[in-house]
Amino acid sequence: MGVGATAMQRIRYGLTGLAFVFLMVLLGTAIIRSGDEPSANAGVNEAGSPSDPLAELGVAPGQGAENVVANNEAIPAQ
């Protein structure tokens, strides 16, 4: 083996090692995140009714006029 072949072999081993470490970190992250996900019943709040994220934020299409006035008063004029 020449000097060039040895260098290519070392580069190949190095890249293979980097790929292995990357895949191990990716696998570990996937395993950790799968434990953090809420259960399948996460869409139901304590009252048993499904939650509506847009209504909780106050941007639902059917919000009442009193909510709009209250929200506008809370925002200072610029």
Model description:
The chain has helices at residues 3-36, 53-57, 65-74. With 78 residues, the chain is mainly α. The longest helix is centred in the N-terminal third of the chain and has 34 residues, at 3-36.
Which blocks of ≥5 consecutive residues have pLDDT under 50?
none
The succession of helices and strands, N to C, reads HHH
What radius of gyration results from the CA coordinates?
A: 28 Å
**Helix-and-strand structural type:** mainly alpha
Q: What is the beta-strand fraction?
A: under 5%
For the secondary structure, the number of strands is 0
Helical stretch tally: 3
What does the average pLDDT come to?
Answer: 76
Distance, first to last CA: 75 Å
Largest sheet: none
- Tell me, briefly, the overall form: elongated
Tell me roughly what share of residues is in helical segments.
Answer: 55-70%
Keywords:
78 residues; mainly alpha; elongated
Question: What's the short story on this structure?
Answer:
With 78 residues, the chain is an all-alpha fold. It has 3 helices and no strands.
List the helices and strands and how they pair.
Blueprint: H1 3-36, H2 53-57, H3 65-74
